[in-house]
Amino acid sequence: MTLGLGRIGGLLACVGLVVAHGGVAHQKPLAVDPDADWGTRHMAEEHHIENFDAGAFFTLHDFDNNGVWDQAEILKFYGMEDETAKDVPQDKKDNILKEILKLMDNNNNGQVEREEWDRYSGSGGLLPDFGLGPGHHWDIEMEYEIHHWQKYHDENTKEEDLIHPEDIEHFKKHDELEDEADRVAALDKMSIVEQNIPDKFRKDKQ
């Protein structure tokens, strides 16, 4: 699949808007102490936040703002919903939940409530490092900006500068997503989707 330069130009413009409006792409990566705990590394690498407290960490990762971390949210901030975790075995994901709930879920309701987190973190408790990276949980655009664009590009980057493997893979992914969206849109316009008709009812298969 070839990369559409028109698409790249549009996406490059979007990245430029983020930079121009002071978004996360305008920030430079923070230096992280290699001995830092997982939560500190996650905040630095994923959010570019150096100074935070336990309450801010909880709120930032309470994605539906209901005062608890449910199991889906725990897996999400550990990066298990990201494409990079597609090969992580299910038993490893189950172990993440098991360990987190064992540490914090005092009332055994299968989730971590704000009060439970406050109690755990207030006593010096830290989020375990399961050896699965910093916990990617942005969409593909933000992940690209945080982990590649900010390191190697800036607001002066031109299309011809986007030659790194990460650039090519990123825009290839966009092409694939747009191609799939076009395919679905075309199918939606058809009164009958021939490919969905069982073979036994199709004349060309008899």
UniProtKB/TrEMBL annotation:
Q: Matching Gene3D superfamilies, A to Z? A: EF-hand
InterPro entries annotated for this entry? EF-hand-dom_pair, EF_Hand_1_Ca_BS, EF_hand_dom, Nucleobindin
An MF annotation (GO) of this entry: calcium ion binding
Has UniProt tagged this entry with the keyword Lipid metabolism?
no
Q: What is this protein called?
A: EF-hand domain-containing protein
Q: Which UniProt keywords apply?
A: Calcium, Signal
The domain of life for this entry's organism is Eukaryota
Asked whether the keyword Calcium is assigned, the reply is: yes
Q: Which residues form the EF-hand domain?
A: 92-127
Gene Ontology annotations for the cellular component aspect, listed alphabetically: endoplasmic reticulum-Golgi intermediate compartment
- What is the organism of origin for this protein? Botrytis elliptica
Record's signal peptide: 1-20
